[in-house]
Amino acid sequence: MAVFDLALSDEWKKEHPRAAMGVLVVDGIINTTESMALEIEKGALTKWLRERFDSREAIKADATLGVYAAYYKRFKKNYHVFFQLESVAVKGKPIARVNALVEAMFMAELKHGLLTAGHDLDAIAGEVTLDSARGDERYETMGGEEKTLKAGDMFVRDELAVLSSIIYGPDHRTRITEGTRRALFTIYAPEGISAGAVMAQMEDIFRWIRMFCAEAQTAKVTVYAADQGKQ
C-alpha cells in the first residue's frame, strides 16, 4: 500500500481556516483483549485523573474541553468526552474494557481531552479526505445508527463513505476490531487546539500500543493544518 496521506478539501480550509487534524498510522499490530501492562497504566491514569479532576466544576474549567464544548454548542450538542471523564474521575467508574487498541485511544482521549477517531486501515477505500459537511451526507455510525451530517461539521471520508465526524463520531464499516493489524487514528483539532497538544496525544497512543505490542511501528505521525498544509 502507498504511504498514507490526507487530502484537505477547499471547503474545509475555507470554513475551518484555523483548525487542524492529527494523523497517526500504526502498522504491525497484534491486538488483544487483555494486557497486564496496559491495565497497570490504566490504573495510574485513573489515579491521576481523579487527583486532577476532583469535581464536575474542575472538568468544566479545563481550557481544552472548553474548546470542544464551544464547537459542539454550535450544533446544539454536548462534548461526550466531558461525560466520559466525569464518569471516571468524579463518579469513580473504571475505564471501560474493549480491546487493547481501542483502550489505548480512549485512555489518550481522557488524558488529553482531544477528540479521536480510530479505524482499521485495511477497511478504508482509496483516498482519505478531511472535509466540511454540506449537511446531506449520511453514514452508519459505530453504534449502528444512520446519521445525516450537520452542515459545517468537520468530517473525514474515503472514496466510499464518511469515516467519522466530530458530532457523530466514527463509522461502523471501518471500526477497530480484535483483528485489526493496521490502524488509522485521526485527532480533530478545532481552532484553539495546538499542534503540540495533538502530537502529545498521538505519542501517548503509540506508547500505550507498544505496551501490548512491541512489534508495532508508526508509519505516519503528522499534524495537518488548514493554513499550513502539514506541520
Throw out a few tags for this protein.
231 residues, 23% strand, alpha+beta, five-stranded mixed sheet, Phenylalanyl-tRNA Synthetase, Chain B, domain 3, 11 strands, four-stranded antiparallel sheet, globular, 7 helices
Q: What is the CATH superfamily classification of the domain at 6-34 and 97-225? A: Phenylalanyl-trna Synthetase, Chain B, domain 3
SSE arrangement, N to C: EHEHHHHHEEEEEEEEHE
The profile of the biggest β sheet is: 5 strands, mixed
Number of strands: 11
Low-pLDDT stretches are none
CATH architecture assignment name of the domain at 6-34 and 97-225: 3-Layer(bba) Sandwich
- Gross geometry: globular
Helix content: 25-40%
User: Strand-residue fraction?
Assistant: 15-25%
Structural class: alpha+beta
Radius of gyration, CA atoms, in whole angstroms: 17 Å
Kindly provide the name of the CATH class of the domain at 6-34 and 97-225: Alpha Beta
- Enumerate the strands of the largest sheet in spatial order, edge to edge or round the barrel: 1-4-7-8-9
End-to-end Cα distance: 23 Å
Count up the helices: 7
**CATH topology term of the domain at 6-34 and 97-225:** Phenylalanyl-tRNA Synthetase, Chain B, domain 3
Characterise the protein shown here.
It is a single chain. This protein is α+β, with helices and mostly antiparallel strands and 231 residues long. It has a domain at 6-34 and 97-225: Phenylalanyl-tRNA Synthetase, Chain B, domain 3, CATH 3.50.40.10. The chain has helices at 10-15, 36-52, 56-60, 63-73, 80-90, 100-112, 195-212, and strands spanning 6-8, 20-27, 116-120, 128-132, 138-140, 146-148, 154-157, 162-165, 169-170, 183-189, 217-225. The chain has a five-stranded mixed sheet with strand order 1-4-7-8-9.
